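Kindly draft a sequence, keeping tokens residue-aligned:
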Amino acid sequence: MADRLHHHEVHRPGLAGLAGGLDIDFTKLLHGEQELLFDRPLYVGDEIAVQATIVEASCKAGKAGPMDLVVVETVGHDATGARVFRARSLAVIRR
């Protein structure tokens, strides 16, 4: 199992990696839900290119006030260009 958990280089995928141009107070961010789909196992030495994209954003009224809902899709491809995984996550940001 440990041979599948090695990573070559870490980039900040997901909302944290996209936040450079966004005004997000991470102390108010809640993890909503997450889905991971793997097309194949990951192995030691795999080099995975990861790209995160905001695919949905909306505002919703909550009991404690307005919230922003952000859905981020992250896709990883191996050196041949084949997709290795896809992840979707929902971030809830209280205002």
